[in-house]
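Worked example

This section walks through a single chain of length 408. The input is the sequence exactly as stored; nothing has been trimmed or padded.
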Amino acid sequence: MRTTNRRSVRVAVAAAVAGAALVAAACTPAPPEPATGISANESPNAADAAYQADGPFKVGVTTLSFADRQVEVWYPADETGTAGAPRDVYNFLDFVPQSFTDFVIAADPTIPAKVNFPDLAYPDVYAAVTPSYRDVPAATAGPFPLVLFSHGAAGYRSQSSFLTAHLASWGFVVASPDYFERGITNALGQAPANPRPDTQVADEAIQFLRSRSATAGNLLSGTVDPASVFPIGHSAGGFQSQRMLTRPDVPAIVSLAGGLNPVSLLNMTAPALPADKSVLWFGGRNDGIARIDTLRTGFEYTAGPRKLIELNGGGHNNGFTDICAVGGGGVAGLARALNLPIPDSLLSLGDDGCVVPAFRPSVDVWPEVKHFVTAELRFRSGLDIQPVGLGDQVLPSFDDILVYRHNP
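Given that input, the structure is written out below as tokens.
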């Protein structure tokens, strides 16, 4: 429940934010209402931890180009097209500037070819095997709800494939565009040629996916439901997702390791969190980048349906990305082992969540993230008529949830 004895300045700020949201709503078409139903605790499936396991669909993945960048798309696949196909593998070195790759080649004696080698020549330590199959035919059971995934600072479009592919297995098309303006290439010194605001990139990606789906004869024809989109994002991508709540076609978001700075409430720069939109705030209790108190602040000021989950042993990266799994100890660990010229601030960002036993291994906390994000999105998108595994009764199935607050 909300605290009722807030200081007057907080009440005034909240009222002002709500007023701004009403003004914005008056100027735009009425947004679609979030899925409704009985409260999470009263659902007959309140205790069902159904979504930690893979869903009924095999998962396809494809890389598409739009404007000056690419978007990775995971989608429900036709199972017959995956028979005998290898799992898709992405290589971290495919997402960094050539200058960084040159440093790696010079520093790593396990790379046999020094120039012009194919991706397959990279040692496996730089690779991540994903739960998906490249360019296989899509399932014909669509259209499916569209999820827009947005990576964080120093991230890359495939950085959370454990989650994006998992969502596709449960009936979503998930699009993850490059945000070069804040991505790993920019962090390593290669600025984008045509920088654009992240919300513009997001809008272009959404329209591109909808257009592909509406056009006959391509891999994604008929796969995307154009009625709504569900933004989820990690870190800076979580902040971006919050700003997208002003879109009339966004009924709900998920913010992963991305909170709300109390200062933004005081200086009136906080995003509107309207009463007709829902937010799932999901963070690591030990996150040193996006501190858990900022997610608590976001939860308190969310006017509509809201959830807050605090992950025990969770840092910035281990619960929400593949980054800690690359190299068996994280991308920052690889860079440090090779004495690569990486700024300390970037190494600290990459380390957060990846140092075991200070943090939990990714594979130990991914089930919680898979379940709660999938359950929330399936309910808000209408795939589930009532909540599944979103009641307090589900907590005994997970040993790494320290706090779970929700309303309803």
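What to look for: Confidence is low (pLDDT under 50) at residues 1-35, 113-122.
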